[in-house]
Specification:
Helix content is 56%, strand content 11%. With 574 residues, the chain is α/β, with parallel strands linked by helices. The chain has two domains: 207 residues, 3-Layer(aba) Sandwich (Rossmann fold), CATH 3.40.50.300; 250 residues, no CATH class. It is elongated. Bound molecules: adenosine-5'-triphosphate and magnesium ion (MG). Magnesium ion (MG) binds next to helix 1.
Length: 574
């Protein structure tokens, strides 16, 4: 039984408490199918989220099988399924792959036979069997809703909450989905609560809950709805609601609720007696073993293999990655021939004053030419790798946030999620950075310690990837995250001091945050003394010791990963 006792959800607005859900009390028995209806903005989604535990109730209490949810712990992830209105599957995957990933993330199966059996059962239950190999992106609206349901049913939840799963569907598909939800409530004593603003097919529900401005106006059998509101057709219920303030509806409901509750209990007893639905004995339901969540490594492996599959299915993304990996180093080599020029040395023998001055001018001119070319080439590599870093991760979390939140609600560990992102991105970072370093080195040898240079290229890409991943996990939308990441890369070059010397007070403030500076400075430090001197002779910027550059980039990566972790743990439902 699900019971709400005087449950409220209040927000603070302009210093006042505003109740979005106000003192709602209901009792819902096992094996029940309930509709939550009401005009737009009346608080249906808010009520559903409060029941799910996504909005902590401000007052009142929720009970599940006489367990007080706020005192004795919330639902376990496998007990509850929540189907939001938005699509919760990845377009490039097939129906079968989506359901398989959902099962692997939520349920610890003994072997692949059990896994397959669960997947097949859910596909059959939701009628998705015949289209299991179709990609999500080609599914119709109704099929997508079925998939959303299937992905929740994998853990066989005893409470299924659905938000507007029929909106936007044609009348036939709508009826099919309502019928499916009805059938799901007839299995293992499952409670199905479905938010809808459609007043069609109400006869399929066991009860209808009418909300008005966050307050309960009615909760009773569907056939009593028109009678209670003194209207001749269900379509007239909403206009009727608007005729008096919600407080009046709430008060009059208080007077009638017990008699309607009894009516529902009687209806249910008749249903059970008629054998319309096979409700197992109450003890059997309560004793049914709660499913165990898969371990960290299992979730990590599922996420990582799914990420690679999505990556390779998205041809545009693969092509872009390849184009970047191939073209960026070529771009650098086009500019690199000047960097290989000779730098004249001072002669050991004493010459006339005039000859010495002439020699000095020639040496300085060589130093200026080669030094600025080498400094520029290194900075060019660093900036291109920063750009790759931001391209790697700016949308990585923000672009799939609703899916991630859903999976977290279903028991996905944020640590497994973060680890899968780090593993996936690390492969990109290593491939991009080392290829850049080797390719450019092949066409014009790095004049110094190549390993150190390659290491700094790797670090700057890793740092920028990590920072943009943090942005991605902290921002609300993928657009915000992309924009911020692009600005961040855009500012690397001017704020690095490698091209323009910055005013000292600004430089001291900005430098610690500019990854490009540390990677550039670290690479310049790796140059042979003569080449290093040539670079020093053309820049106004001070260089930092190799160790400091290394620790600065390490700090960027560490802080960014901590921020990513904080952002990923924080609930971010819309
Ligand atoms: N976190 C929040 N902060 C402020 N206001 C909120 C918040 N969540 C919801 N609201 C407001 O509470 C009211 C109820 O919102 P809710 O989404 O529950 O309505 P609804 O009945 O589901 O509407 P619809 O049928 O359009 O989906 C709306 O006026 C909404 O703007
Ligand atoms: Mg809503």
């Amino acid at each position: 039984m699900l019971e709400l006792q005087e449950v409220s959800f209040t927000i603070r607005k302009d210093g006042d408490d505003v109740p979005l859900v106000d003192r709602v009390s209901i009792r819902v028995p096992k094996g029940h199918f309930m509709a939550i209806v009401g005009p737009s903005g009346c608080g249906k989604t808010t009520l559903l989220k409060t029941i799910a535990g996504l909005n902590p109730e401000s007052a009142g209490a929720l009970f599940w099988d006489s367990r007080n949810l706020s005192e004795d712990g919330d639902f376990s992830p496998s007990e509850i399924g929540y189907v939001p209105q938005f699509s919760i599957a990845y377009d490039p995957l097939t129906v079968d792959e989506s359901v398989e990933a959902a099962t692997r993330l939520r349920v610890r199966c003994r072997d692949t036979a059990e896994l397959d059996q669960r997947i097949d059962q859910v596909l059959e239950e939701t009628g998705l069997g015949p289209i299991s190999d179709r990609q999500v992106k080609v599914l119709s609206g109704g099929q997508k809703r079925r998939l959303g349901l299937a992905m929740e049913l994998v853990s066989d939840p005893k409470l299924l909450l659905c938000d507007e799963v029929t909106s936007g569907l044609d009348p036939r598909s709508e009826r099919e989905i309502v019928r499916l939800l009805h059938d799901l409530s007839r299995k293992d004593g499952r409670i199905v609560l479905s938010v809808t603003h459609s007043l069609a097919h109400l006869e399929l529900y066991d009860s209808i809950l009418v909300l008005h401005e966050g307050r309960l106006a009615f909760h009773g059998p569907p056939e009593q709805l028109t009678h209670y509101f003194s209207v001749s057709d269900t379509e007239e219920v909403y206009p009727r609601l608007a005729t008096q303030p919600s407080e009046r509806w709430h008060n009059s409901w208080q007077k009638h609720r017990e008699s309607y509750q009894k009516m529902m209990e009687k209806n249910r007893a008749l249903l059970v007696a008629s054998g319309d639905f096979p409700t197992p004995p109450a003890e059997a339901i309560e004793e049914s073993e709660t499913l165990r969540l898969p371990g960290f490594f299992s979730q990590f492996a599922t996420l990582l293999s799914r990420r690679w599959r999505i990556f390779f299915r998205d041809r545009g993304q693969v092509f872009l990655q390849l184009a970047i990996i191939v073209c960026f180093p070529i771009l650098v080599t086009i500019f690199s021939d000047k960097a290989s020029g000779n730098i004249r040395r001072f002669s050991d023998t004493r010459q006339s004053e005039r000859a010495e001055i002439e020699e000095k001018i020639l040496v300085s001119s060589d130093q200026a030419k080669v030094g600025s070319a080498i400094s520029g080439i290194i900075m060019f590599q660093v900036v291109l790798l920063s750009l790759m870093g931001s391209n790697n991760s700016a949308r990585e979390i923000a672009g799939e946030r609703p899916i991630y939140e859903k999976e977290k609600f279903g028991g996905l560990r944020p640590s497994a999620y973060l680890a899968s992102k780090v593993a996936f991105l690390a492969c990109l970072v290593i491939g991009q950075s080392l290829w850049m370093a080797f390719f450019v080195n092949f066409f014009g040898t790095f004049r110094g310690d190549f390993i150190q240079h390659a290491g700094f290229l790797l670090l700057v890409n890793a740092a920028m990837t990590a920072v943009c991943l943090a942005i991605s996990s902290l921002m609300r939308t993928a657009e915000q995250a992309s924009l911020l990441s692009i600005y961040l890369v855009g500012f690397q070059l001017p704020l690095s001091g490698a091209v323009l010397a910055l005013p000292e007070n600004i430089e001291a403030f900005t430098r610690p945050f500019i990854s490009a500076y540390w990677a550039w400075s670290g690479s310049v430090e790796a140059l042979q003394p003569q080449v290093y001197n040539a670079v020093k002779s053309v820049i106004d910027t001070s260089l930092s010791a190799r160790e400091i550059c290394f620790y600065a980039l390490g700090a960027h990566i560490a802080v960014a990963l901590i921020a990513t972790w904080a952002g990923a743990r924080r609930p971010q439902w819309d």
